[in-house]
Every structure is written in structure tokens, then in C-alpha cells.
Amino acid sequence: MPYHEFEVSKVIPERKQHAVIKGEGEDLTSCLPAGYLNTIPGSISERGCAYCGAKHVIGTPMKDVIHISHGPVGCTYDTWQTKRYISDNDNFQLKYTFATDVKEKHIVFGAEKLLKQNIIEAFKAFPETKRMTIYQTCATALIGDDINAIAEEVMEELPGTDIFVCNSPGFAGPSQSGGHHKINIAWINQKVGTLEPTITSDYVINYVGEYNIQGDQEVMTDYFKRMGIQVLSTFTGNGSYDDLRTMHRAHLNVLECARSAEYICDELRERYGIPRLDIDGFGFKALSDSLRKIGLFFGIEERAEAIIAEETARWLPELEWYKARLKGKKVCLWPGGSKLWHWAHAIQEEMGVKVVSVYTKFGHQGDMEKGVSRCGEGALAIDDPNELEGLEALDMLKPDVIFTGKRPGEMAKKVNVPYLNAHAYHNGPYKGFEGWVRFARDIYNAIYSPIHKLSLVDISKDEIPTDQGFLTRRMLSDRNLPAEITGSSELREYSGKYDSVSALREKTYPEFPRAEAGAVEVVAE
Amino acid sequence: MATPKIKNMAERKYEKVYTSNPVADADPETKERIAQLENYIMKHCLWQFNSRGWDRRKQNAGILGKTTQLLCDEPVDISTPLEKCYWVDAVCLDRAYRELFPWIKTMTKDDIKALMKLLHARMDWLTIDGSLNLELTVVNY
After folding, report:
1. Is residue A205 within 8 Å of residue A294, measured between CB atoms?
2. Does the N-terminal peptide bond of residue B75 adopt cis geometry, omega within 30 degrees of 0?
3. Taking CB atoms and an 8 Å cutoff, what residues of chain B touch A522?
4. Are strands A19-21 and A380-383 parallel, antiparallel or unpaired?
5. Mutation test of the interface with chain A: which of B68, B71, B78, B84, choosing the one with the most A Cβ atoms within 10 A?
6. Which residues on neighbouring strands pair with residue A162, listed in sequence order?
7. Domain spans of chain B?
8. What is the ipTM of this complex?
9. Low-confidence ranges of chain B (pLDDT < 70)
10. Integer distance in angstroms from the first to the last C-alpha of chain B?
């Protein structure tokens, strides 16, 4: 096994099994780091907890719901201003954060009364909102509060309300991924099948593992609607609580982030016979193949091809403009989980960069299998890294840019490595054809920002040249490019709007005539 | 609602099929061709990486089996939603293979079947039997 031992982690020998460098001829039977294990004591991990994974990643993107944390107010830290899963109902779920504000006295005397009081107060404060999710936290799990019993009481007292209880306290898994798992299973056990939907199309999908980061879900749903497909529910970005109760009636589960939501897809397949189709909204080829596959499944491939042709013609010249300028740039692809495999191959193929390292904070070995497969030889793969390992890797690999979360991202900036936010994006959405160009634009802006030249100058000791002007991005990026690229009349910079999402909410879509009720014809090759 | 009882527990507690790389003894040309076909799957597909070994076994068999039929211009069963789902991935793979690896169109049906059988074995080895992923044998989702 080509393990890589970090100098800084020699004092934690177990860490060695969590990093590998893919060598010549290595494959998954010889090169795979350990994963999804409890963080080793002494390693200052960048992970989140299981409560965070359940609530802040999966639960809260549901848009028409009062989301309450039953615990200390500090558990709601990752809410206001830190998440970017927007919604088309004025971001209700982002604007309002609820916690029962458990204190020491409640730990001693119990917090069930406090919980009930909070639930009723919240429903009264927002009388239009009849749906609620309650999240267990470490403190209230340890004192044994019976959240389900309180929820049942309130639902009886306030007819018309519906409450979902998620028992995923922070300690319920090695990382946030444990929380993803728990809320997936809890939702299908408690809520799926408790409501019947209105079916409006012959082609009905659940869009699963999609969190509408800066509008991703709305971009993808636009494509589906243009194909005449009914998106019965989205699990969970911009998703509606009641729509998600009807998931059992879809014809197909279209799965985006397998890391966080494969469990519910697999259970829907087992319990209701709904197939799982893994897709990928990032990258022109992967997205085209994804739309094509959904089209094939329903026998409407020509509708997918029309969208692919239109979008490719519109956006490819802009992607190519950036590709010419990003060629050979070294990237550390260090996201939380799924983006290490969503992006690893696509950015190399379609943007010309080289991925020199992948890491995952909460991914499992399955994610690393995908990531290691999609990287080239020499790539360093790290599971659950700590900050010192990250710094050592940056020093060793000398990347031109790093894609990661905001906390390790700030660390990278301090060693003069530009960073892009891989979780919440800089100027997303990044899904869709236009979104992929926005991502390329952000990478370009990060790598060629003049600030990185200026920030290297130490005014306390360096001589400041007075005979040089300010260098722009374009001057830096085009310096060594051939004239056919710099003077090309076909290639162009991103020309979309600052906000590429809001207009989608006003759009109208073609109506496709339906076949006879229940009849869905699939055309064979 | 309680979690339903698992019906296919025997399938979930599967035995290994391969104990070594099934392509190891193939001739150099076959090895090279398998490597090209495998590389395309690993770089562009996700279906081979379902999180449990028993699912991977079904995915590999379903999609590579149907891809073989498409490459050989044989009829494909799409009578159920689950079969249809395998078929859409197989269609994409069939098209990519024909486009990127023109040599496959020069082969006889028997040779295609033999090659795809070996590719299937190789994929089972890489993703299931030879895999270092310790979660493949967990019996629950």
C-alpha cells in the first residue's frame, strides 16, 4: 500500500493509513486510504458532527419548515450567514433559526417542557407554516428527553401541523456523514408514504442529494421541466416537506450526491421498486450524459438532446476561453465529500487543470474509490486531514489553487494559496452548463488575482519597485498565450448575469401532451 | 413506521467470486483493451460504486451484461423499471465504446462477448472482491 506519512503526524502513527499517493500501476486493490473512522485523538480534525450533518446539511434546506434544534443555542451556529442553500420562498429556512436554548438547569431538571413551549411559540409566531422538524442534540440526548412524545402531543393539540423528529445527536457517528445516514433513514421510516401527490406528467422523478447551493437545484430543475418531467420532490434543497412525503410515487430517483443521500434512494428501491440513477450536474460531458440517461429512461431522449445542443452552443466558447488560461494549473481538490469525485476528472478534462491532491473530511472509502480512480498518478489522497497535514501538503505540492471549505480555505490564504469555497461556492451556482463556466471564471479570478503578487511583498523589508504598474488578471493570464487564443473571435469570457437564478423562477414551460394514464412508453435503442 | 425486515439477507452476506486479478494471465492485446474499457468506466461512470458489495455485483452484471448485448446488436430486456435503469447506463457505455474504441466494431460477436466477460470479471475484482473498502460487506444500507 503506497501510504504517505506526514512529518507532522509521525507522533500519531495511526494517521499513516489515512493518506496514499497513487503510484504507477496502482489501482483500487492496492491504493485506498482508510475512511469513515472515528477521528484519532490528537488529530485536530476539520469534521462536523452527526447533528450538523443531519440538520445543517440535509434537514434545513427544506424550505417551508420551522427547523428547531433541541439543545443549547450554540448548536445553531452553522445557520445564519454560513449556509447558502437558498430557496424560492424568500429563504425562509435561512432567515429564521430556532433553538430551545437549553441551559444547565434543564440538564438537571429535564427540557421536555421547554421543548413543548418552544414548539407552540414557533407555530404561533409563523401561523402560515404548519410543518416542523426537530433535531436532537448531544445534551438533550444524554438527558433522555422524549422528543417524539412531545411532538405527538403538539400534533394532537394543534390540528393540521406535522412534525418530523430527527434523532441524530452530535456523537451519533464519526462525522457529519453519520447524521446524513440517520436523517435519510428517519425520513423514509417516518414520512415517506404519508401523503399522496398530484401527478401532472408521464415522467416523474425525485431529485435526490441536491441542496440548491446558490441555486443549483433550480438550474437543474429548469432542464427537467424543459423536458416535461415532473420533479415530485427534491431531497432536500429548495424542497417542500409535503412533497418529500410523496417520494414513493416517483418513477425514478435521480441521485446527485450519493454520499449524503444514497441511503434513501437504496431504501426507495428496496421498498417501492423505484430505480436509482446516479447523475452528475457538474461538467458539460457528465451533465449531458446525465440528461441523456434520464431522457432515455423515459423515451424522450430527443428533448434532452435539444437542451444539450442549445446549452453547449451558448456556453462552450466561454468555457474554452477559461480552459486556455487554466491549462496545467495545479489544484488541490479538498472538499467535504462528494465533490472530490464529481469534479476530479471533469475539471481536468474540461478546464485543463491538474488535480494533484484530493481529500475528504467526512467521505467514506467509497468516495475515495471514486476519487482515486478519477485522479492521475502521483495524486495525494487524504482522509480526514488535520490542519497541520494540510499545510504540509500545500508546502509539498505547491498548488496554484485549492478548493475547500471556508475554514481550511482561510488557512490556505495565509500561505498565499488562493482558495475557492467548494461547499458553498464563491459565485455559483456551479451546476448546469452556465454554472460550470461560472466555476471556471471563479477559478480564473482566484488564480490570477493580482492580490497574490502584492501580498507576497513584505513592506517591512522588501524593496518596493516604483517603476512597475499594477498587473491585471488579463496581463498575468495572457502573457504566454499564442495569438490565436488571445485574438480569437470565437472564445469569450463569461457573459452571463450576476444573478443567473432568479429569472428561472418566472419562467414558463411548454406543455407536453400526456399518454394514457399510467402508460409510459420507453423506446428501445 | 418500523423498518421492514430485510428479505435478501443471504444475498447481502455474499461470498467472494474472485481471489486474484482475473486479467493477470490475459495476452498483452487483451490486457490493453480491457485497460481502455475499464479506464472509461472509472473516469466517467458512477454505477460501479454503489456502497454495498451485493449491489455492485448486480450493477456490474446488469449494466455490463446489457452493454454486451448492445455491442452485439442483440435484444435487451427493459421490461421492468430496474432493468430499464441498467439499460440507460448500458446505452451510454455502448455508444462511448463504439466511438472511442473503433477496434471493438471490428470484432466478432463471440470475441466481444469474451472480452466483455473478462471486463466484467475485472470490474468485479476491482470494485468488490479485491476492493479494500471495508464497508462493502455491511448488510444494511
Report:
1. yes
2. no
3. 78, 84
4. antiparallel
5. B84
6. A131
7. 28-129
8. 0.96
9. 1-3
10. 17
pLDDT of residue B2: 61
Q: A193-279+495-525 belongs to which CATH class?
A: alpha beta
Please give the Cα distance from A103 to A100 (Å, whole number).
9
Q: Domain A50-190 classified CATH 3.40.50.1980?
A: yes
Q: Which CATH fold topology does A312-486 show? A: Rossmann fold (3.40.50)
Q: For A471, which DSSP code?
A: P
- State whether the Cα torsion A425-A428-A431-A433 is positive or negative: negative
- As a whole number of angstroms, the distance between CA B130 and CA B4 comes to 31
Of A320-329, A424-433, B6-15, the least confident = B6-15
Task: Tell me the C-alpha to C-alpha distance, in Å, between residue A525 and each of A309, B69, B92.
Answer: 20, 11, 11
Q: How far is CA A371 from the centre of its chain?
A: 16
* A518 has a pLDDT exceeding 70: no
Instruction: Supply B30's cell numbers.
Output: 487483451
DSSP structural state of residue A85: B
pLDDT in tens, A68-115: 999 999 998 877 667 899 999 999 999 999 999 999 999 999 999 999
Task: Give domain limits for chain A.
Answer: 50-190, 193-279+495-525, 312-486
What pLDDT does A521 receive? Answer: 45
Specify whether the CB–CB gap between A360 and A336 falls below 8 A.
yes
CB atoms near residue A230 (< 10 Å)? 17
- With an 8 Å Cβ cutoff, are A251 and B92 in contact? no
Quote the distance between the C-alpha of residue A163 and its chain's center. Answer: 26
Contact list, A366 vs chain B (CB under 8 Å): 49, 51, 133, 135
Chain B residue closest in CA terms to A280: B46
